[in-house]
Amino acid sequence: MQAWKDYQQQHKDRFLNELLDLLRIPSVSARSEHKNDMISCAEAVKQRLLEAGADKVDIYPTPGHPVVYGEKFLDASKPTVLVYGHYDVQPADPLELWNSGPFEPVIKDGKIYARGACDDKGQFYMHIKAFETMTQTNSLPVNIKFLIEGEEEIGSRNLQDFVEAHKELLKADVILISDTAMLSLENPSIDVGVRGLTYIEVEVTGPNRDLHSGVYGGAVANPITILAKMIASMHDENNHITIPGFYDDVLEVPAAERAELAKAPYDEAEYKQDLGVNALWGEKGFTTNERTGIRPTLEVNGIWGGYTGEGAKTVLPSKAFAKISCRLVPNQMSEKMTKVVIDHLLSIAPEYVQVKATPHHGGDPYMTPVNSDEYRAASKAIETTFGKTPIPVRGGGSIPITALFESILQCKTVFLGFGLDSDNLHSPNEKYDVANFYKGIETIPYFHQYYAEMKK
Amino acid sequence: MQAWKDYQQQHKDRFLNELLDLLRIPSVSARSEHKNDMISCAEAVKQRLLEAGADKVDIYPTPGHPVVYGEKFLDASKPTVLVYGHYDVQPADPLELWNSGPFEPVIKDGKIYARGACDDKGQFYMHIKAFETMTQTNSLPVNIKFLIEGEEEIGSRNLQDFVEAHKELLKADVILISDTAMLSLENPSIDVGVRGLTYIEVEVTGPNRDLHSGVYGGAVANPITILAKMIASMHDENNHITIPGFYDDVLEVPAAERAELAKAPYDEAEYKQDLGVNALWGEKGFTTNERTGIRPTLEVNGIWGGYTGEGAKTVLPSKAFAKISCRLVPNQMSEKMTKVVIDHLLSIAPEYVQVKATPHHGGDPYMTPVNSDEYRAASKAIETTFGKTPIPVRGGGSIPITALFESILQCKTVFLGFGLDSDNLHSPNEKYDVANFYKGIETIPYFHQYYAEMKK
Known about the structure:
Chain A is of the alpha+beta class. Helices cover 34% and strands 21% of the residues of chain A. Chain A has helices spanning 2-23, 35-52, 121-136, 159-165, 167-170, 223-232, 255-261, 268-275, 288-293, 334-347, 373-386, 401-409, 434-454; strands at residues 56-60, 67-72, 80-86, 106-108, 111-113, 143-149, 174-177, 189-194, 196-205, 211-212, 297-306, 315-316, 319-328, 354-363, 366-367, 391-394, 413-415, 431-433.
């Protein structure tokens, strides 16, 4: 629509500057020292929603970080779209690997560098600007609701309670989320599934105090060695996960769907070069895209124990720790899998040590039906602005809240992501391409238009 | 000698208070922020040596931390004893596990709690007070030299150059070191051997940046998992070390000597209870005392990688690190074994990752001949003040400088240690029993007396 295009063209610099302002707020949900930044960020989101044309916006406190809710209601005959996003970001460390400050956004070679540039500030902000475009051109075709939370990066701890307590408020026909990636601007794609997650912290205790490794080494189990043996034992020589029952609930993907997924462009040499590795690693019998899309995985996200400072210290530590997470695929339910993994960790703990395993957040896997109106509206919107039908792909990440939305709100989710796998999510130098940001703002109004038309 | 006893009784409170003052200086050699504390500590040691009766004391700068050298020369007909000690201490972390400040010494239940209380400030300070006792009672029977260095805890990096450059200055008939433990005041013992050491830092690099564990997990090798597998592979199911060639140079200890060592009192239930473990761990076929005394070991002293902060972060890290050290037994030379271990680490690195292994400090094992004058003088001194012949035992720790002294100064070392294994060396709440401190001061002059008599 020409009016949209004109409006966006006219305001594009402001759109970008507003995003940069948002990126300057260090809204790290995992760190308690950022509590006030979280509140400032929620306030900023509220202001931007009001300026963009929301009828009302409220900040709802939770036992953790606040939820921002805003809406514009036209009339009951129109369908209602609930846009979900999150204003919290991952911790920025290791800081020394950033080329510029994680909360001092810079634009270089057409890319915005900042923590949260893509995940998810840059992506949910496209929705606010798309919304502004439609309200300012008097062309909003749907009732629209915004649910922008502050705890996605720490497992949406309080969102379930919030959603259950506000079912009526959040009632919608479809949920729209931009928190995933596409293959590229040249090869647009839509994630039709996200993996589930279970995240466990393991504490291995050997002796009751740190010991001198000369005086006691060789006679007392070293918790680091034991933890290493436990971790090592969880993948076999084919990189299958060895935990009993781990694959029991996995829905095998039919050969036809695997063949379809194999059509996504993939260049192994380029993939390896981008990552700087000589060889890829993964479960035998599956391709890279399958390993990250349709197969469950187990990764150690962090490990620590003993002396980790400068120089040498000859200590045999009392404790060693690891953070371990699994990505889950359809039919593997998070709660059950958390128990499967924890039970296994406890069962393989040798008598020399005490093992404690504590679950962090988790979430169930989710699939969008490709034959649904919401998927078709998204596909058609991308076709309109990209000139190509998007490829349906399986994303490797997790958006635990989607399974929850379905069960509480009885509502399907569609993932309209404009990020790229190379955006360094959760890593130093996170970025978001300015072109993708604008392309998202351009595409989103069409989703609303097509969806409204389909639901007429 | 009654004069010694009287003098020590009269000054015992001052002796203790002087030690507490020394313990207040945070002379952590491993941390560059303590550079000035190291200088203050060297100055304090110099002052105490002068006050105790040294003819001259000098502080020698090195490329690292300074060496304190002091002496009192009587005449060339008397034998010369070189007392070696170190004024540097291990880092105090983890700080949160200390019951009182590591550099705010407190005395509780007859024990001095502070970093360095036993290792080695409390022990070398006994020599200064024993020296004072002899000079003040005009009964010093030997020429005495003090070499108190500041880099023992970081591998005595610059001491070899110093010793080589000052061979004449350091010339002695015997080297006396109190930096080891005895079984207990009731079961006095003398370490007849210390193990050697090799200490290696390993860096495993997977992808060139931290990755999102959902987007890339399962398709790219996780350096933590790989490092865990490498560590896990280095002990077999009998806890033998699997590194090819690792045991090649080990001098097997004859059955007769093993039988002799087995006489040292050892209560397994008490040992386990003290450490808070349900089961001991170690190389099959050897007892606890053998595992820590006559067998080489491999311990992971530290490990780190990925996200180690509060909460959850779904990262697949670029790098993982470990600090690994081996204790070496007679005939295993440190330089060779360092190469053996590093070569092995590189050889087992899979193609998915890059492995870098860097040696920290090391040292060769050392044995004191039990039929030597120096051992006999030490044994007799302990018999005099404890009323019991000390048991010769093999210590698990390492004093790398002893092998160096032997090769450069052609001089044997005797270990006259008064610590206890339970002194929490290198750990939180390091302590030294006040009784052991005084017992050391009481015993040391007899060593000098007996040694002078034997050398007449």
